[in-house]
Amino acid sequence: MSEVEEQGRKPSEELEESTEDSEEEDSEEEPKLKYERLANGVTEILQNDAASCMTVHDKFLALGTHFGKVFLLDIQGNVTQKYEISSVKINQISLDDSGEHVGICSEDGKVQVFGLYTREGFHENFDCPIKVVALHPQFSKSNNKQFVTGGNKLLLYERNWLNRWKMSTLHEGEGTITNIKWRANLIAWANNVGVKIYDISSKQRITNVLRDNTTLRPDMYPCSLCWKDNAILIIGWGSSVKICVVKERDPTEMRDLPSRYVEIVSAFETEFFISGLAPLADQLVTLYYVQENSDHMEEEFRARPRLDIIQPLPESCEEISSDALTVRNFQENECRDYKLEHSEGESLFYIISPKDIVVAKERDQDDHVDWLLEKKKYEEALMAAEISFKNVKRHDVQKIGMAYINHLVEKGDYDTAARKCQKVLGKNMDLWENEVYRFKTIGQLKAISQYLPRGDLRLRPAIYEMILHEFLKTDYEGFATLIREWPGELYNNMTIVQAVTDHLKNDPTNSILLTTLAELYTYDQRYDRALEIYLRLRHKDVYQLIHKHNLFSSIDDKIVLLMDFDKEKAVDMLLDNEDKISTDRVVDELKDRPKLLHVYLHKLFKRDHHKGQKYHERQISLYAEYDRPNLLPFLRDSTHCPLEKALEICQQRHFVEENSRMGNCRRALQMIMEELGDVDKAIEFAKEQDDAELWEDLISYSIDKPPFITGLLNNIGTHVDPILLIHRIKEGMEIPNLRDSLVKILQDYNLQILLREGCKKILVADSLSLLQKMNRTQMRGVRVDEENICESCHVTILPSDTAQPFSVVVFHCRHMFHKECLPSSGTIPGGQYCNICSAKRRGPGSGILEMKK
User: Fold this and answer.
1) Taking every annotated instance into account, which residue ranges of this chain make up the domain RING-type (predicted)?
2) Structure confidence by residue, pLDDT tens digits, 744-787
3) What CA–CA distance (Å, rounded) separates 173 from 63?
4) Which of 319, 389, 686, 721 fits a 20 to 30 Å CA distance from 380?
5) Long-range contacts: 411-416, Cβ < 8 Å, 24+?
């Protein structure tokens, strides 16, 4: 809740939003309104007099006092004009919409209506106090010279065409009239009984809204009236609020009823007594008179008035905000001493009390930012100022950002503070340098380093060098990261190189510093030094460096080092750049490293079978030693390889497969049997070659070796007739597992017999099926018509005159001939055949159909 402090304040500082207790001070809910006292001339007036009423116009204010004076004030409270109307209290001041005419009534019965800029006027003294006066909203127009007064009666004054005022009584007999509000053609007034509405156009009273709490004195708790628009009237009386809507009656329902009627759309009770009402969009601003119970006294005491914003509902209301106002002398004021006036154009609300006038207005974007800053919500304040920068007048976005950065630094959140510098400081290099030095002072240069400008706008080189030196002292990895991320133009490269060199004297093997030094050398175009470091470190970027800067002339003597580091990448690079590093040079460098030499020559051979042809003989032994699976493909694809040398090496190394593939199958089989003694492998080899001579060699070699005979008996049945082997076995020779081997041979033979019988049955069935199909096909008729032609003379097969006898021969191959176009059957032994198909064997097309007529 907001308070208005009274003492020790200058006029511009008189209003301060505070809370009633410590709990409310900690509230995070932002107030909806802001307050300030109406000062200047008003302060002096209220020191010697007291405010009794006030009317608000968009251009000026009209203030009435208890001593019968009326002051016209500007919006700031300066007096522009003074009228001495009476010696007693001014009860009401009314202005028309144009602000050119004013109506005034006082406690002694005086009523004055006059123009502020003309001499025309109305002056009348009544014999009773006149509580209210209201001018027609369009009073300045000649046809609307009307006003009403309220005392014991509601009187309407109209100026006729003779320029005289005509009076008529609209209502009387229900006590004193305490309030009147005129809007368009509708006059609403309140008396002791309730609220009435009169339609000036139809001259009919259209409603009577009764007062709810009749125990309250109407003079002590007066009715508050307010038109929201031309059809909605808001009534506040005691602690009840009613919202009434004036509607047009359906013509079919009129009869003797008024053309309009009133519907109450909302009615609810409030916690306190109402002193004033005003609309705010679809909400209500209510001024409450508050009485509270003291903890030490049984009697109630007068508390500070409250200004609430509420959301009306059909039978209740929702409180949006609530502010307690410390107006001057609030302890002495009663409910009738407070009034609420509002300016529709600017959403200004004036709280009037005898000794104080407070202006409430909706908070703007500047006020919102103020509140956020006060609550130390700097990030939200910065965001709000950026989003609504056109509406922010009193605040500077950059200053708010600086306050946010200061706040983060005070909290110790240095990373966030540094990140915000990018957004807040922008292109202001002076502010950037100040922040860098501040972060240096608090030992947080690392935090701000990654956010420094590094594009077209940049700081002095000394700033970047200072940060690099700081990282070099404490964080080698962070230093290396900055060197990679920062463009070299930001700092003096030689200065940093020297600093890194000095640190390497104490730690010469530090890989991070060496890598960073290589990067610095690269940027400084000293590629040879960078290459030395990369090779020393076996760094992955060495190949990229060589390619990018064409350093092939520098790696002639470093080929072995490159191969040791990554032979695949090294070989690819050497082969891609043969014009810069010759094959002979590479082979010479790798002559003492045969395995690496093999990798290089193998990839060279894969790319081109002829480029390294003079090294093919050497490659045979390299393949045999390091890559036997690729030996055979090499021997097959190479046309420059001496086969005698290859055969010699294969025999020396007992490479059976290679021997066989080179055509020396008998030698390969001999190596398997004699050197390996592996009968299963020998049998498998013989099966692969499927050569009768090899089987004979295998049987001859095995005939005196019982284990070999057993192996042959178990596997030979499907490739060679087992009888050949059995006949050659010497009598009396003991052969392991002979019975099992013979049983297996018999089983294999039975299986072969069964397979042959099955195949024979399938063959016979298929032959019969195909024969039947051929027979059905040949038995079908063949259509012959005018479209068919003789395949020999190419004339239509049927004559034009079918009455004449003719002969046509149709073969089963669907070729047709005139009989006379075929050779005589006597010239072809065995019958006639289709000339077109005669080159083929006798088959389905050899049959003949003869058509005669």
Assistant:
1) 790-838
2) 777 777 888 888 888 999 999 999 999 999 888 878 888 888 88
3) 31
4) 319
5) 414/439, 414/442, 414/444, 414/447, 414/448, 415/447
